[in-house]
Each structure stands twice: as structure tokens, then as C-alpha cells.
Amino acid sequence: MELTWNEKGLIPVIVQDEKAGTVLMMAWANREAVQKTAETGTAWFFSRSRQALWNKGETSGNVIRVSAIMADCDRDTLLYRGTPTGPACHTGAASCFFRTIWRDENE
Predict the structure, then answer these.
(1) What residue ranges of the chain have pLDDT lower than 70?
(2) Do residues 31 and 102 lie in contact, with contact meaning Cβ atoms separated by under 8 Å?
(3) Which pLDDT tens digit goes with each residue over 71-83?
(4) Dihedrals φ, ψ of 35, to 5°?
(5) Domains in the chain: boundaries
(6) Which of 6, 26, 63, 87 has a C-alpha 20 to 30 A away from that of 95?
């Protein structure tokens, strides 16, 4: 399947816990990171600040085992579905999405 990469050759990747359904994190990937994810079954990304590939959990031990790579309808965003072996966020939180900036008080 042909994907739509941005002008820097990157694509956003949402990572979801396949059992809980929780969104764990968002990161960027290049073609090599997506290929390495498919080959190894662990989440690989491209660090825009370091301009280098990184394997999630390589230093922390908090690996994400990926069972599926899915593309959205426009093929410009990916979803890695998998199982985390520890916190996904570098802060130690289970998910990077733990800060509420707005909530509908009527719900």
C-alpha cells in the first residue's frame, strides 16, 4: 500500500494499546522505521530532534510489541496496535495523553 508522507518523508503514528483501547502516544516514522517495526514486531520511530531512528523502549525497557500497523482512510496517518511492557510516556505515565485541557461538564 502506498502511504502519503509529508515533505520531510515522515508520517504521524498513533500507538494504541490493543487490549485496553487506550491511545498511548503519538510519534513520527519514516519508511525505515515502519519497515523495522514490521520486521521486528516492536515500535520504531524517527526522532525529529535527533534526526535518528529510535526503538521505543531501547533504553527504558518499556517496549511496545506491535501486532498490527494500520493506515487511515487517507493513508497519511498510521496506527500501531500493540502491547506495552511498561509506561509509554517518558514521564512514567502509562499514556502520553494524561493532561485534560477541556472537558464538557454536561457529559
Answers:
(1) none
(2) no
(3) 999 999 999 999 9
(4) -65, -45
(5) 11-84
(6) 6
- C-alpha 41, offset from chain centre: 13
Rounded CA-CA distance 7/21 in Å is 31
Residue 37 has a CB neighbour count (10 Å cut-off) of 23
- Predicted TM-score (pTM) of the model is 0.93
Q: Give the separation between CA 84 and CA 24, rounded to whole angstroms.
A: 9
Place of cell 487511515: 72
Looking at residue 91, its pLDDT comes to: 94
> Cβ contacts of residue 106 below 8 Å, gap of 6+?
none
**How far is residue 13's CA from residue 77's CA, in Å, rounded to a whole number?**
6
